[in-house]
Amino acid sequence: MSNDFVLVLVVITALGFDFTNGFHDTGNAMATSIATKALSPRVAVGLSGVLNLVGAFLSLSVAATIASGLVDTKLVTLTVVAAGLAGGITWNLVTWLLGIPSSSSHALIGGVIGSTIAAAGGHAIQWHDLVAKVIVPAGLSPIIAGLVAATGTYLLYRISRSLTEGARSHGFRIGQIGSASMVSLAHGTNDAQKTMGIITLALIVNKTVPATASAPFWVILSCGLAISLGTYMGGWRVIRTLGKGLVEIEAPQGMAAESASAAVILLSSHFGYSLSTTHVATGSIIGTGLGKKGAEVRWNVAGRMATAWVFTLPSAGLVGAGAYALAHAIGGTAGVIVDLVILIGVAAVIYLRSRRTAVSHNNVNAEWAGSVAPPAPEPEPAEPAAA
Amino acid sequence: MAPPVAPPPPWINLTALWQIVVLGLIAGAGLPALFAVGLRALSMPGSRAQTAGADSDRVVGGSTAGIAIAAICFAVVLAAIGWGIYAIYQAGHA
């Protein structure tokens, strides 16, 4: 009885995480297209949202492996899952506020690992798998994506050098619509499955479904919808950092970066590596800056991101562990409820804080002046009615 | 509960790594390069177009051969993407 109530809370929290995953990662697919004006901001997030939903249904091969392959599922309880999700969501919101594109996958994995350690100790973690399947790919994937993107950028400029500036922009903007769509699709196939895996894990833990079950249809549908809706909300702060902050991007670079991201994400998931799409997209964008003569990469922005990446697993883990300790101290259903109430409070504070330096589809492409929040041109116009 | 006895997998799967790099270069850099070849062919000046200024953003130049080459390039790119999506669908619903 009580268990089913907690299960419902966990499922809602997981869908909440999926939603943050969507809006945190919109930029991975669409930042470069928005920056080059291949797509208008609102069309871009709409297209990306739809393709994320399609992607969620396209492939289901890694659904149950993401967190359950890294922790001993026999030691996991619903409280552990809830606390882990709290860790993941908190980290996603904080990095979004700062406009840092950090990995939602790492936030989720970190949160669940932290709460599992707090609940059962370090022996419940498959450390070898954690390093081989999460940490090593996280280090390599941005480098590979950067290499592919730099090669692509070089080739595109080389091949298209006889075109006029205008024709080149026009042509590659059309190409960008295709390549950005592929990244959105790849994101759906990859990231929606991570939440599907977590919900399935919760169902297994609660003995609602047998241990060998794959994700039920309603889980696939609700995860697809949650990530799609989140994507449509548009994480404008992160989009701005990726599209304007790292490198000034032209259309050929945008297409090269997006193609590299899509290829690396899809190939890696084919080989069973559930990569962080964020790491890949960032690597591609830096690569496209390196591949074009005279393009400037803002290494201080890149450095800030890399620092955040290093801290993602441990930070989300600490929050997850703390959330578990609190829930455990209070005990039972009440403990989970207290955790979630605090989580909602934290989310509300972060949201209110973000309103002070709002980034929206109106100012996402403003000139980069060293910070996420664009300099306010005049006293903030209240949300324009035309929007 | 005894863990399954199996040799631990290597830290880095080198076979997968080089395949991802090579296939990534082919698909992630090669396909957009082919698209660029198509754009360039498309823009070749020819009889079928009015003359365009140097700062024109007209993509179609008007050469019949160019348009044909471009069509082939774009078709190959689309076919490769379609095949890739089909392969993902197959793998996910086996």
The largest β sheet of chain B comes out as: none
Order of helices and strands of chain A: HHHHHHHHHHHH
Could you tell me the strand content of chain A as a percent range? under 5%
Helix content of chain B: 55-70%
What is the oligomeric state here? Answer: heterodimer
Overall mean confidence score, pLDDT of chain A? 86
Low-confidence regions of chain A: 378-387
Radius of gyration of chain B: 22 Å
What Rg of chain A, in angstroms, do the CA atoms define?
20 Å
Identify the most extensive interface between protein chains: A-B, 56 and 45 residues
Give me the number of helical elements of chain A: 12
Give me the count of strands of chain A.
0
Class by SSE composition of chain A:
mainly alpha
Give a description of the structure.
Chain A has 387 residues and is an all-alpha fold. Chain A has twelve helices and no strands. Chain A is globular. The relative contact order of chain A is 0.20. Chain B contains two helices and no strands. Chain B has helices spanning 14-42, 64-92. The two termini of chain B are 31 Å apart. At the A-B interface, helix 5, helix 6 and helix 9 of A face helix 1 and helix 2 of B.
Keywords, separated by commas or semicolons:
heterodimer, A: 387 residues, mainly alpha, 0% strand, globular, disordered C terminus, B: 94 residues, 2 helices, 62% helix, elongated
Topology:
The complex is a heterodimer of chains A (387) and B (94).
Chain A: H1 2-35, H2 41-58, H3 78-98, H4 104-120, H5 127-159, H6 165-205, H7 217-233, H8 236-245, H9 251-270, H10 277-290, H11 299-330, H12 332-356
Helix pairs in contact in A: 1-2, 1-3, 1-6, 1-7, 1-8, 1-9, 1-10, 1-12, 2-6, 2-7, 3-4, 3-11, 3-12, 4-11, 5-9, 5-10, 6-7, 6-9, 9-10, 11-12
Chain B: H1 14-42, H2 64-92
